[in-house]
């Protein structure tokens, strides 16, 4: 596994860096569930790249390649590991704020 990069989160401080599609971040901010899918490419990574249901449908149309519209709409965003955990729980139907 590659060396984990870190990011400085305003809420959680220095944390491992993660990547999600813009829709996961936007849905977290707006409290609107958008689904949560992640790559199986690196099973050792506790925070694999993740994307929403709409991005999942777009990437299926390209045979699994992040190309064309799938890539154009993805617009990856950085989340800290703790924000990633909150996003995953929320977008999979849980309530991380309860």
Topology:
Elements: E1 6-9, E2 13-20, H1 22-30, E3 37-38, E4 50-51, H2 53-61, H3 69-74, E5 77-80, H4 81-91
Antiparallel strand pairs: 1-2, 2-5, 3-4
Give descriptors for this structure.
alpha+beta, 3-stranded antiparallel beta sheet, two-stranded antiparallel sheet, 4 helices, 36% helix
Can you tell me about this structure?
The chain is an alpha+beta fold and 98 residues long. The mean pLDDT is 94. It starts with 5 loop residues before the first strand and ends in a 7-residue tail after the last helix. It has four helices and five strands, in the order E-E-H-E-E-H-H-E-H.
Radius of gyration: 13 Å
Q: Count of helical segments?
A: 4
Strand content: 15-25%
Strand order of the largest sheet: 1-2-5
The overall pLDDT average reads 94
Note the main sheet: 3 strands, antiparallel
Distance between the termini: 34 Å
- The coarse overall form would be globular
Helical amount: 25-40%
**Oligomeric grouping of the chains:** single chain
Uncertain runs: none
Order of helices and strands: EEHEEHHEH
By DSSP, the count of extended strands is: 5
SS-based structural class? alpha+beta
Short account of what is shown:
It contains 4 helices and 5 strands; from the N terminus they run ββαββααβα.
């Amino acid at each position: 596994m590659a060396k984990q990069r870190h990011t400085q989160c305003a809420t959680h401080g220095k944390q491992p860096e993660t990547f999600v599609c813009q829709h996961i971040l936007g849905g977290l901010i707006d409290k609107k569930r958008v689904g949560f899918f992640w790559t199986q490419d690196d099973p050792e990574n506790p925070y694999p790249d993740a994307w929403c249901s709409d991005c999942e449908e777009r990437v299926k149309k390209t045979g699994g390649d992040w190309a064309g519209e799938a890539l154009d709409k993805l617009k990856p965003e950085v989340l800290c590991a703790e924000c990633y955990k909150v996003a995953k729980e929320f977008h999979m139907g849980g309530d991380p704020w309860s």
